[in-house]
Structure formats: C-alpha cells, structure tokens
Amino acid sequence: MDLDGPGSGIAVKNPAIRFLLEDIVAYGSEALETVGDLDAKAILADRLREHAVLRTVQIVGEAAAQILKKQPEGIAELELRDAAGFRNILVHGYAKLRMERVVDIVRRSLPPLIAGARKALGEEIE
C-alpha cells in the first residue's frame, strides 16, 4: 500500500491512484456545484444540468472502483465501495433511479469523500 497506515497523514504516492483521487476531488466538487441549492425538480427541469450531475457522480464512482481494483484494501477513511456501488446503480439501474436520491447522495456523501481524497493526496483541509 502506498499510504503509511490508516490516518497517518502520509500522502498516497502511487501516480495512478493519485490521478484517480484527483478525479474524485474535481468531479465531486463539480457535482456539488452543479446541484447547488436546487431541489430534484429544478434539476430535472434543466436537462443539461441533470446530465451533468449524473455524469459527474458516475465519474466519481468509476474513479473509486478503479482505486479498489488497483488497491483492494482501499484507502483509510474513504468510502470507496459505496461510491463504486452507486456508480453501478447509475449505469445499470438508471430506470429506477430517482433524482431526489442523487441529490441527497451528492450533498451528504460527496463532501466527506472529497475531503478524504484531499487528505490522501496530502492537501491541507480547512
């Protein structure tokens, strides 16, 4: 593992995993910005916004899944399995998906995931 133990504060060194963590930060932040303070109904009324939210969350989940392929034990303090699992729902179960659930996940689950990815990258968290 390229992290010196759970909660050690030592940044991930593997370049491929760092790239994926950077995607989690970038696309997760974009999903949060795109959702903003809008409710599901407002997002669904704007087809481009709807697609942007779904795609950015899907990319976050795919990055999480790729990290788990490269490092099956995951990274301390990151809920990678939940993110990867939700990506599978977005891709394979989209007909059953409700935007209310997506908005809830973006608002509740992405902030700690982004913070954890930043920590794993060695960034200072405010």
Summarize the structure in words.
The chain is globular and about 45 Å long. Helix content is 67%, strand content 0%. It is mainly α. It has six helices and no strands. Helix 1 runs antiparallel to helix 3 and helix 1 runs antiparallel to helix 6.
Write the layout of secondary structure elements.
Layout: H1 15-35, H2 40-44, H3 47-70, H4 80-92, H5 99-108, H6 110-121
Helix pairs in contact: 1-3, 1-6, 3-4
Outline type: globular
Low-confidence residue ranges = 1-8
Counting helices, strands and paired strands, the structural category is mainly alpha
Distance between the termini: 26 Å
**Percentage of residues in helical conformation:** 55-70%
The profile of the biggest β sheet is:
none
Average per-residue pLDDT, rounded, comes to: 89
Please give the count of helices.
6
Oligomer: single chain
* Radius of gyration of CA atoms, rounded to a whole number: 15 Å
H/E series? HHHHHH
Number-wise, the strands total 0
Strand content: under 5%
List keywords for this structure.
126 residues; 6 helices; globular; mainly alpha
Task: Offer a concise description of the structure.
By secondary structure, the protein is mostly helical.
